Amino acid sequence: MARILKCNIKKLVIMDINQKERAEKKFEELTKNANESDIKKINAKIESMNKGKLKEVWDKVMLLWQFVKDPNAPWTGKALAIGALLYVISPIDAIPDFIPLAGLLDDTSIILAAIAKLSSELQDYKKIDK
What we know:
49% of the residues lie in helices and 8% in strands.
């Protein structure tokens, strides 16, 4: 059985229900354990992740990254964004990143979930530094 997650108006991501559950569990774990030192880990790897399916939502990845770097952002929201970005930079997750075509589908879904959960907090971050 497959579960369909809306990615954007034009495209859909299809993930197996077990993959979706594993992705959600890992995302929740990363969010719960997020801390300031994770920002350095993200900074070291985030630019290398602009590939595959993530290219389609890269503006959203950068929006979360901008939010994380803001010292005035509320910690609860920042922890959620850190969890999502840590998920993206982790090569081994629900669908390992090295799997051709499918490897970044779960990462894309996690980014979209984080954006949806943080929609009100992200209003001030719509303009992304280029």
